[in-house]
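$ fold --in a.seq
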Amino acid sequence: MKALKMIMIFVLLVGSLAILKAPLLLVDIAATVIGMVIVWRCRVLGSELIAQRGATPAFTSFDARPTRRQRRLMARSLAWSLRRTEMASLLPLADARAERLVVAWAARAAEQA
Protein backbone atom coordinates (compact mmCIF):
# COMPACT_ATOMS: atom_id res chain seq x y z
CA MET A 1 0.00 0.00 0.00
CA LYS A 2 2.87 2.32 0.83
CA ALA A 3 4.46 1.63 -2.58
CA LEU A 4 1.18 2.48 -4.32
CA LYS A 5 1.02 5.83 -2.51
CA MET A 6 4.61 6.58 -3.51
CA ILE A 7 3.82 5.76 -7.13
CA MET A 8 0.73 7.98 -7.01
CA ILE A 9 2.77 10.87 -5.57
CA PHE A 10 5.41 10.37 -8.26
CA VAL A 11 2.78 10.33 -11.03
CA LEU A 12 1.17 13.49 -9.66
CA LEU A 13 4.55 15.20 -9.46
CA VAL A 14 5.47 14.27 -13.03
CA GLY A 15 2.00 15.27 -14.22
CA SER A 16 2.22 18.67 -12.59
CA LEU A 17 5.65 19.27 -14.15
CA ALA A 18 4.29 18.20 -17.54
CA ILE A 19 1.40 20.65 -17.21
CA LEU A 20 3.88 23.44 -16.52
CA LYS A 21 6.04 22.54 -19.53
CA ALA A 22 3.20 21.84 -22.01
CA PRO A 23 2.64 25.47 -23.12
CA LEU A 24 6.36 25.89 -23.79
CA LEU A 25 6.39 22.69 -25.80
CA LEU A 26 3.38 23.81 -27.85
CA VAL A 27 5.02 27.16 -28.59
CA ASP A 28 8.21 25.40 -29.63
CA ILE A 29 6.29 23.08 -31.95
CA ALA A 30 4.45 26.02 -33.53
CA ALA A 31 7.71 27.95 -33.99
CA THR A 32 9.31 24.94 -35.64
CA VAL A 33 6.39 24.49 -38.05
CA ILE A 34 6.45 28.19 -38.97
CA GLY A 35 10.23 27.95 -39.38
CA MET A 36 9.83 24.96 -41.67
CA VAL A 37 7.50 26.95 -43.91
CA ILE A 38 9.94 29.86 -44.02
CA VAL A 39 12.96 27.63 -44.73
CA TRP A 40 11.10 25.69 -47.42
CA ARG A 41 9.93 28.88 -49.13
CA CYS A 42 13.46 30.36 -49.08
CA ARG A 43 14.84 27.19 -50.65
CA VAL A 44 12.16 27.20 -53.37
CA LEU A 45 12.74 30.86 -54.19
CA GLY A 46 16.50 30.31 -54.25
CA SER A 47 16.15 27.51 -56.77
CA GLU A 48 13.78 29.66 -58.84
CA LEU A 49 16.36 32.46 -58.86
CA ILE A 50 19.00 30.03 -60.08
CA ALA A 51 16.63 28.71 -62.76
CA GLN A 52 15.86 32.27 -63.92
CA ARG A 53 19.55 33.02 -64.15
CA GLY A 54 19.94 30.32 -66.80
CA ALA A 55 16.99 31.58 -68.86
CA THR A 56 18.23 35.11 -69.49
CA PRO A 57 21.60 36.67 -68.76
CA ALA A 58 20.05 39.63 -66.92
CA PHE A 59 21.58 38.53 -63.62
CA THR A 60 25.07 38.14 -65.07
CA SER A 61 25.28 41.28 -67.19
CA PHE A 62 25.51 44.67 -65.52
CA ASP A 63 23.96 46.45 -68.52
CA ALA A 64 20.91 44.24 -68.91
CA ARG A 65 17.81 45.18 -66.97
CA PRO A 66 16.00 42.36 -65.13
CA THR A 67 12.56 41.53 -66.43
CA ARG A 68 9.46 42.28 -64.41
CA ARG A 69 9.16 38.63 -63.40
CA GLN A 70 12.80 38.56 -62.26
CA ARG A 71 12.37 41.76 -60.23
CA ARG A 72 9.29 40.36 -58.50
CA LEU A 73 11.08 37.09 -57.85
CA MET A 74 14.03 38.95 -56.31
CA ALA A 75 11.66 41.04 -54.17
CA ARG A 76 9.85 37.92 -52.92
CA SER A 77 13.16 36.20 -52.24
CA LEU A 78 14.40 39.19 -50.29
CA ALA A 79 11.18 39.39 -48.23
CA TRP A 80 11.34 35.68 -47.32
CA SER A 81 15.07 35.96 -46.56
CA LEU A 82 14.31 38.79 -44.14
CA ARG A 83 11.68 36.60 -42.46
CA ARG A 84 14.26 33.83 -42.22
CA THR A 85 16.76 36.23 -40.67
CA GLU A 86 14.19 37.38 -38.11
CA MET A 87 13.35 33.78 -37.28
CA ALA A 88 17.02 32.88 -36.88
CA SER A 89 17.73 35.86 -34.65
CA LEU A 90 14.66 35.48 -32.43
CA LEU A 91 14.42 31.69 -32.21
CA PRO A 92 17.76 30.19 -33.26
CA LEU A 93 17.07 26.68 -31.94
CA ALA A 94 13.69 26.44 -33.67
CA ASP A 95 15.25 27.77 -36.88
CA ALA A 96 18.05 25.21 -36.77
CA ARG A 97 15.54 22.44 -36.08
CA ALA A 98 13.36 23.60 -38.97
CA GLU A 99 16.38 23.68 -41.30
CA ARG A 100 17.34 20.12 -40.33
CA LEU A 101 13.79 18.86 -40.84
CA VAL A 102 13.39 20.53 -44.24
CA VAL A 103 16.78 19.24 -45.46
CA ALA A 104 15.95 15.73 -44.26
CA TRP A 105 12.51 15.89 -45.88
CA ALA A 106 14.02 17.12 -49.19
CA ALA A 107 16.66 14.37 -49.14
CA ARG A 108 14.00 11.75 -48.50
CA ALA A 109 11.85 13.11 -51.32
CA ALA A 110 14.87 13.05 -53.66
CA GLU A 111 15.55 9.41 -52.76
CA GLN A 112 11.99 8.39 -53.55
CA ALA A 113 11.91 10.25 -56.87
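$ fold --in b.seq
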Amino acid sequence: MLIGIVGSGSSGNTGGSSPPPYEAAPARTSAGASGTVAASAQEIPGDGTFLVGEEIRPGTYRSAGPADDTTGCYWARLKGTTGDSGEIIANNSGKGPVTVTVLAGDKAFQTSGCQTWKPLP
Protein backbone atom coordinates (compact mmCIF):
# COMPACT_ATOMS: atom_id res chain seq x y z
CA MET A 1 0.00 0.00 0.00
CA LEU A 2 1.35 3.40 -0.92
CA ILE A 3 0.33 6.22 1.35
CA GLY A 4 0.51 9.81 0.19
CA ILE A 5 0.72 9.10 -3.53
CA VAL A 6 -2.11 9.41 -5.99
CA GLY A 7 -1.18 8.49 -9.53
CA SER A 8 -2.77 9.77 -12.67
CA GLY A 9 -2.22 9.97 -16.38
CA SER A 10 1.34 8.77 -16.75
CA SER A 11 3.18 6.96 -14.03
CA GLY A 12 6.71 5.79 -13.82
CA ASN A 13 9.40 6.64 -16.28
CA THR A 14 8.25 7.11 -19.84
CA GLY A 15 10.06 7.35 -23.11
CA GLY A 16 13.16 5.64 -21.73
CA SER A 17 14.06 8.62 -19.60
CA SER A 18 15.10 8.20 -16.02
CA PRO A 19 14.33 10.58 -13.17
CA PRO A 20 16.97 13.13 -12.35
CA PRO A 21 19.29 12.11 -9.53
CA TYR A 22 18.30 13.23 -6.07
CA GLU A 23 20.29 16.32 -5.17
CA ALA A 24 20.62 18.08 -1.88
CA ALA A 25 19.26 21.54 -2.32
CA PRO A 26 18.81 24.26 0.22
CA ALA A 27 15.19 24.66 1.10
CA ARG A 28 13.76 27.53 -0.86
CA THR A 29 11.65 30.25 0.62
CA SER A 30 9.36 32.18 -1.66
CA ALA A 31 9.64 35.94 -1.69
CA GLY A 32 8.01 37.55 1.31
CA ALA A 33 7.79 34.34 3.32
CA SER A 34 8.16 34.82 7.04
CA GLY A 35 9.09 31.25 7.94
CA THR A 36 5.49 30.29 8.66
CA VAL A 37 2.90 28.89 6.32
CA ALA A 38 0.20 31.26 5.15
CA ALA A 39 -3.32 30.34 6.20
CA SER A 40 -4.60 30.40 2.62
CA ALA A 41 -4.02 27.64 0.11
CA GLN A 42 -0.82 28.09 -1.82
CA GLU A 43 0.71 27.00 -5.07
CA ILE A 44 4.16 25.42 -5.24
CA PRO A 45 6.53 26.49 -8.03
CA GLY A 46 7.64 23.74 -10.42
CA ASP A 47 11.30 23.78 -9.31
CA GLY A 48 12.77 23.73 -5.81
CA THR A 49 12.91 22.02 -2.44
CA PHE A 50 10.32 23.24 0.05
CA LEU A 51 10.11 22.54 3.79
CA VAL A 52 6.76 21.10 4.84
CA GLY A 53 5.04 23.12 7.56
CA GLU A 54 7.38 26.09 7.07
CA GLU A 55 7.26 26.89 3.35
CA ILE A 56 4.42 24.69 2.14
CA ARG A 57 1.39 23.16 3.78
CA PRO A 58 0.71 19.44 3.88
CA GLY A 59 -2.03 18.50 1.45
CA THR A 60 -2.80 17.20 -2.00
CA TYR A 61 -1.36 19.06 -4.97
CA ARG A 62 -1.70 18.63 -8.72
CA SER A 63 0.64 19.64 -11.54
CA ALA A 64 -0.42 19.62 -15.18
CA GLY A 65 2.89 17.88 -15.93
CA PRO A 66 6.23 18.90 -17.38
CA ALA A 67 7.01 22.58 -17.84
CA ASP A 68 8.13 21.86 -21.41
CA ASP A 69 8.17 19.00 -23.91
CA THR A 70 11.85 18.16 -23.46
CA THR A 71 11.85 17.18 -19.79
CA GLY A 72 9.83 15.10 -17.41
CA CYS A 73 8.17 16.31 -14.24
CA TYR A 74 10.10 14.92 -11.25
CA TRP A 75 8.88 15.09 -7.66
CA ALA A 76 10.00 13.61 -4.35
CA ARG A 77 8.63 13.53 -0.82
CA LEU A 78 11.60 13.66 1.55
CA LYS A 79 12.33 12.79 5.18
CA GLY A 80 15.50 14.91 5.16
CA THR A 81 17.37 17.46 3.05
CA THR A 82 20.98 16.25 3.08
CA GLY A 83 20.82 14.72 -0.40
CA ASP A 84 21.11 11.11 0.76
CA SER A 85 18.96 8.89 -1.47
CA GLY A 86 17.74 7.09 1.66
CA GLU A 87 15.77 10.24 2.54
CA ILE A 88 13.36 9.74 -0.36
CA ILE A 89 9.98 8.61 0.95
CA ALA A 90 8.43 8.45 -2.53
CA ASN A 91 9.27 9.89 -5.94
CA ASN A 92 8.37 9.66 -9.59
CA SER A 93 8.97 11.22 -12.96
CA GLY A 94 6.58 11.39 -15.85
CA LYS A 95 5.28 13.23 -18.88
CA GLY A 96 1.63 13.65 -17.86
CA PRO A 97 -0.42 15.29 -15.12
CA VAL A 98 0.38 14.13 -11.60
CA THR A 99 -1.22 14.38 -8.17
CA VAL A 100 0.83 14.05 -4.96
CA THR A 101 -0.21 14.13 -1.32
CA VAL A 102 2.41 15.77 0.91
CA LEU A 103 2.02 14.54 4.49
CA ALA A 104 2.58 16.52 7.69
CA GLY A 105 5.35 14.07 8.66
CA ASP A 106 7.34 14.77 5.47
CA LYS A 107 10.38 17.02 5.94
CA ALA A 108 10.37 18.48 2.42
CA PHE A 109 8.91 18.29 -1.08
CA GLN A 110 11.24 18.51 -4.08
CA THR A 111 10.08 19.24 -7.62
CA SER A 112 11.93 19.73 -10.88
CA GLY A 113 10.76 20.47 -14.42
CA CYS A 114 7.07 20.58 -13.45
CA GLN A 115 4.37 23.14 -14.02
CA THR A 116 3.10 24.90 -10.89
CA TRP A 117 1.59 22.59 -8.25
CA LYS A 118 -1.92 23.70 -7.30
CA PRO A 119 -3.64 22.63 -4.07
CA LEU A 120 -6.71 20.46 -4.37
CA PRO A 121 -9.68 20.92 -2.06
